[in-house]
Design brief:
210 residues, 36% helix, disordered C terminus
Length: 210
Amino acid sequence: MKECKMKDSRIVISEVMMPSQANPNGNVHGGEIMKLMDSAAYAAARRYARSNVVTARVDELEFHLPIRIGDLVVVTADIVYVGHSSMEVAVNVIVEDLDDGGDPQLGLSAYFTMVALDRNARPKSVPPLTLDTEEARAAFEEGKRRYEAHKARKRGAVAPAGGCVCDAIAQQTKAAHTAHTAKRSEEVKVHILHIVQEKNAVPRGAAFPV
């Protein structure tokens, strides 16, 4: 099975937000952006696996700022971790106000776990991910951490004395989020810097690697 690099799976989707996607106050519905994110994750995972894929889980979905009618939304999706049949896709939404000419900003971010399926709709193996840069290796280790944490949660959280299992899960989630925040912030700064430097005009609805 041929190995693949992270950059080979990258997908970029852009779209200008329209009134039909927003509420009466001009704010774009979160569901509209989440749909774009899921589409980008699907395309990246399908390109990587060369088979049908389905969304299994979404982790750390965060809304960083509101998106309004007329904003240019650029969604990027990158494979950062792979297991036997699953792939974790880092999806970032970069927002640019086309009127004020300011720098693009991070609007949303999340990690989508996609599972490759064969023609019988059963999980199938995917190629290993080539970690050819320090950035790729760091992202892979972070993805592995999230994968193992999810497996641990599925096996069942141990409730603290006098507490309930929901409290244990909440504590685990808070600890994982705190540890992740600093690193995620630096990754986002680098990501936005790349977007600003490239400033490529992407046709609405287009999806292609950069």
